[in-house]
Design goal:
Organism: marine sediment metagenome
CATH architecture: Sandwich
CATH superfamily: Jelly Rolls
Shape: globular
Order of helices and strands: EEEEEEEEEH
Strand order of the largest sheet: 5-4-7-2-9
Protein name: Cupin type-1 domain-containing protein
Number of domains: 1
Helix content: 10-25%
Structural class: mainly beta
Radius of gyration: 14 Å
Number of strands: 9
C-alpha cells in the first residue's frame, strides 16, 4: 500500500482575525500552535459559559491553543480558529482537495473579520 503524505499548512494570523470554516469528511486533522494564543472552536456540545465571547458560535466547543499544544480535529466536524494575538498555527492530515467549506461557519468567520477590519 502506498503511503500518502499529508498536506502541511502554516496559518499566520493577526490578532482578532478568524480562519477556517471547513469540514474534512475523510480523515482527522491535527494542529499545533507554534506562536501566540489561538481559540479553536469545533462543533459539539457547547461549553456552559456564563459570558461567552462574541467569537463563540453556539454549538461549538472552545479549546485554547497555547504554544506547543497539539490538538486533533475529528473528521466530519466544522471548525474555526480565532487568533487572540498574532499567531502561527501548523496543521496537517487533510489535503485541500479533501476539504470543503462549511457555509454557516464560513459566514460567521466573515462577520468576525469584518468587525476586526473596521
Amino acid at each position: 500500500e502506498e503511503m500518502s503524505t499529508p498536506e502541511i499548512t502554516l496559518l499566520v494570523t493577526k490578532k482578532g482575525f478568524a480562519r477556517g470554516g471547513y469540514i474534512h469528511d475523510l480523515r482527522d486533522e491535527f494542529c499545533v500552535c507554534v506562536e501566540g494564543l489561538v481559540e479553536l472552536y469545533i462543533t459539539g456540545e457547547p461549553e456552559r459559559e456564563t459570558n461567552p465571547s462574541p467569537q463563540h458560535k453556539k454549538g461549538f466547543n472552545l479549546t485554547n491553543l497555547h504554544k506547543g499544544k497539539p490538538v486533533l480535529i475529528p473528521s466530519g466536524k466544522p471548525h474555526y480558529f480565532v487568533s487572540k494575538n498574532n499567531s502561527v498555527v501548523l496543521e496537517w492530515g487533510t489535503k485541500i482537495t479533501e476539504s470543503k467549506h462549511h457555509p454557516e461557519t464560513r459566514a460567521f468567520i466573515d462577520e468576525i473579520n469584518k468587525k476586526v477590519n473596521k
